[in-house]
Design brief:
472 residues; alpha+beta; BirA Bifunctional Protein, domain 2; Rossmann fold; 2 domains; five-stranded mixed sheet; 14 helices; globular
Length: 472
């Protein structure tokens, strides 16, 4: 049963846990959301359909920085990644994998991307997904490309022997997923037909442990997005039969997280989940896109026949907490969009910058020294390159700036003789803009280590000289 937007019921839950129900006619409450700009903009964009039609700047940035572009020989909504772009994507994947395995204690698995559509459990679940699945005909059988990791994982867990005292068990998988989105909805990396999804499924003992896991993962994903520098509005969906308990639960979560929640009440049990939350990011054009999500699944354990061994010898069905740390492509584009929103000069975080440091020799006489310095920095694992192109010195400086290079080093006669480097630092801080600092080589390496501490690293690819790097 569809619900008219005017009949929708929402709750606004503030940081104190106070929950107030409202509808779209309650303009005073909606206006009060301006105190929380991301929540207010989300409500305008998503719920009141007051979105903008501007082209998000990450699309041109991907091309400008030689990172990625749409593949013209593929279906719409499929990206190809050039070397620097694949490097950034790989770093994000490593970052999330580290959280899933090292911080959350998950087990990593791998399952196929193609499944037999005629199997009853798969067919039933696919029907809930509003016909956004890709179908393939092979001989006389119909297959679908995965739109989530559920199919293979659930069949794997059906064969697993799990004890009650081992729960919750967290299973992690990252894989290509496919959704047949409308062509008009495929705008940049906001919405794709082919994307990379890192999923964590937590298999819990009962509803109480499922709620505990739901809250735990929501807090962890809050930490994740804070570490990536991505603000968000926390939006929840609660099914009508679970309204009272769900709002009480979300109120307690808002207090613990010191963060408001907007909850929409969904009539009936339309999907497999009883409650879910979404981390909604507002891009630089004012539109929203969902990053992480956590869902309390009360259907699929029975649907797929998934059970664990209870202490009394009987079998019990799981409550499954589905969660994703966010499609890699959406995180990728959101980091670029957030840079455009910043008050300071737009830049990548140093750990994620495809080129962390450019060395610009003032003249041909300084190239050998520049290469020597660059090799010393590369030995420490940083992505440093010498701009030895035929462009003018001033153009090289401008290109370093327009490509958001966080560290740019100039080496001329003075620097060569004195051994002191002139370093332009492009700061992420809103209080600073690019500034020049005299540094020794060791001071520069120490600064790079500080800026990348706690994040995955990738060694530089290709030769030291930028002139030898392929241009796309």
């Amino acid at each position: 049963m569809s619900v008219s937007p005017l009949n929708k019921v929402y709750y606004f839950i503030d940081e104190s846990g106070k929950a107030v129900s409202f509808g779209l006619e309650n303009t005073d409450l909606i206006e009060s959301l301006k105190k929380w700009p991301d929540y207010y903009q989300y409500f305008l964009s998503e719920e009141m359909k007051n979105s903008t039609h501007q082209t998000p700047p990450h699309i041109s940035a991907l091309i400008k920085f030689h990172l990625a572009s749409l593949e013209p020989a593929s279906d719409v909504g499929n990206y190809r990644y050039y070397p620097l772009g694949a490097l950034v994507k790989g770093l994000l994947e490593e970052f999330i994998r580290g959280i899933a395995l090292n911080e959350l204690g998950g087990y990593e698995i791998e399952t196929p991307i193609i499944y037999d559509y005629s199997l009853p459990d798969i067919h039933e679940q696919a029907k809930e997904f509003r016909q956004k699945d890709y179908h393939l005909r092979v001989g006389n059988r119909t297959f679908l490309l995965r739109f989530a990791s559920d199919f293979g994982l659930f069949r794997m867990m059906k064969d697993a022997s799990v004890r009650e005292d081992a729960l919750p068990v967290r299973m992690y998988e990252i894989s290509k997923s496919f959704r047949l989105e409308r062509r008009s909805e495929c705008v940049g990396m906001r919405r794709l037909r082919s994307f990379t999804m890192p999923d964590i499924h937590s298999f819990c003992r009962d509803h109480a442990q499922g709620e505990e896991e739901f809250k735990y993962l929501t807090k962890k994903y809050d930490e994740l997005l804070n570490r990536l520098g991505l603000p968000y509005a926390l939006i929840a969906r609660v099914t009508k039969p679970y309204e009272k308990e769900g709002i009480e639960f979300l109120s307690s979560m808002a207090v613990e997280m010191k963060k408001p929640v907007i909850a929409e009440i969904i009539p009936g049990m339309k999907y497999y989940w009883q409650m879910k939350d979404e981390f909604q990011f507002i891009d630089s054009t004012g539109n929203n896109l969902q990053l992480s999500t956590v869902q309390l699944d009360v259907k699929n354990s029975e649907r797929y026949g998934l059970t664990y061994a209870k202490k009394d010898g009987s079998r019990g069905n799981y409550v499954i907490v589905h969660s994703s740390l966010g499609a890699i492509e959406r995180l990728y584009s959101s980091i670029i969009e957030q840079a455009y929103k910043a008050e300071a000069l737009p830049t990548f975080p140093v750990w994620l910058s495809p080129i962390q440091l450019r060395i610009i020799p003032v003249s041909e006489d300084n190239v050998d020294t520049a290469i020597e310095v660059c090799n010393s920095i590369r030995k420490e694992g940083f992505r440093a390159y010498v701009d030895d192109s035929e462009a003018s010195f001033n153009k090289k400086i401008r290109e370093a700036s327009t490509n958001w290079t966080p560290y740019t080093v100039v080496i001329g006669k003075k620097e060569q003789e004195q051994g002191i480097l002139s370093v332009t630092i492009r700061s992420l801080s809103s209080a600073d803009r690019a500034f020049v600092k005299a540094m020794t080589l060791q001071e520069l390496i120490s600064a790079l280590k500080k800026d990348t501490s706690g994040f995955p690293t990738r060694n530089p690819e290709g030769p030291v000289r930028l002139s030898l790097m392929p241009k796309f």
